[in-house]
Design brief:
Rossmann fold, about 25% helix, about 325 residues, 7-stranded antiparallel sheet, Hypothetical Protein Yjia, Chain: A,domain 2, globular, 2 domains
């Protein structure tokens, strides 16, 4: 008798919406036991897998690129590789998979993969496409045709994060816009650090709907570039903060996302840094591990070159 297909939840959302933070809370809080995680990032060097690696028994990092485009086949292979690992006794058994996509990932082709792939059929099923909406930046992102809009249109569930500090009228307007765009999706406000298993589970009512053909194609702004700055000597936290805030002030409109794991002089553990557009998050002191031998910060920008964002210490640029 063939085993039931393993459910897969796809977590998507705009760059900097807080997907990794949410996934960390779900895994560390025990809301997702026996879960394998597949991480996709835009760019040659992965960071998100470092941020969640201590939270799950199995984390797979897809190659650089967007899961909806050139590495879509790699997503299928990653899922099959997990299955083979369990069958051979190399990995512990898992009951579900969570795929965290890049913020640039178009969701339509991912839906199409689960429908079309004969290799996945019968082995894995798409349980839910969950989109995390940043209440601070979501309204602006939804004004134009683009990936954030498509992620909202195709979601089974819309999770609204970072809403606590928002003006009630602005938050209500955002929720009304989400309801207008995708009335079939569940909409939930989620608090930072909270963890509920049902957030990534299948919707209570699976509404069948036709996916417009143009949303099954991935289209990215050719001006979007990704590069990495690396340095070997730990720097003072104040200097790191001043650098990131200066970039946010001067280049915020073109600074789609900054994220990295660094070594700081004052701290004996890894430190995660995050910024999106004009917003810089406080440094996050990771709970386990030695400081990394190399600090790496990934930039996803629109039209910026490495020379536009260099700090005041020696760095190496990795394309």
């Amino acid at each position: 008798m063939q085993a039931a297909p393993i459910p897969v939840s796809v977590l998507t959302g705009a760059l900097g919406a807080g997907k990794t933070t949410l996934l960390n809370a779900l895994l560390k809080g025990g809301a997702l036991p026996d879960t394998a995680v597949v991480v996709n990032e835009f760019g040659a060097v992965g960071i998100d897998n470092l941020l969640i690696e201590s939270s799950s028994e199995e984390v797979v990092l897809l190659p650089g690129g967007c899961v909806c485009c050139q590495v879509r086949a790699d997503l299928a292979e990653a899922l099959l590789r997990l299955e083979r690992g369990v069958r051979r006794g190399e990995l512990p058994a898992f009951r579900r998979v969570v795929v965290e996509t890049s913020g640039l990932a178009e969701p339509g082709p991912i839906l199409q993969l689960f429908v079309e792939s004969p290799l996945l059929r019968g082995r894995f099923r798409l349980d839910a496409l969950v989109t995390l909406v940043d209440a601070q930046l979501g309204a602006q992102a939804l004004q134009a045709e683009g990936t954030p809009l498509h992620q909202t249109l195709l979601a089974d569930r819309l999770l609204i994060g970072k809403w606590e500090t928002q003006d009630p009228a602005a938050l209500a307007a955002l929720e009304a816009r989400l309801a207008q765009l995708n009335p079939q999706a569940e909409r939930l406000r989620i608090a930072r650090g909270a963890a509920e298993a049902q957030w990534l589970g299948a919707p209570a009512v699976q509404a069948a709907r036709e996916v417009p053909g143009h949303l099954l194609r991935a289209a990215h702004d050719e001006a979007v570039t990704s590069f990495v700055l690396r340095w070997d000597t730990p720097q003072p936290l104040p200097a790191l903060g001043e650098w990131l805030h200066r970039l946010a002030d001067t280049q915020g409109a073109r600074l789609m996302r900054v994220k990295g794991v660094i070594a700081a002089l004052e701290v004996d553990r890894p430190v995660a840094v995050h910024a999106v557009q004009h917003l810089v998050s406080p440094p996050e002191f990771l709970p386990e591990g030695e400081p990394p031998p190399h600090s790496r910060v990934v930039f996803i920008t629109r039209g910026l070159e490495p020379g536009d964002v260099l700090p005041g210490w020696a760095v190496t640029v990795e394309a």
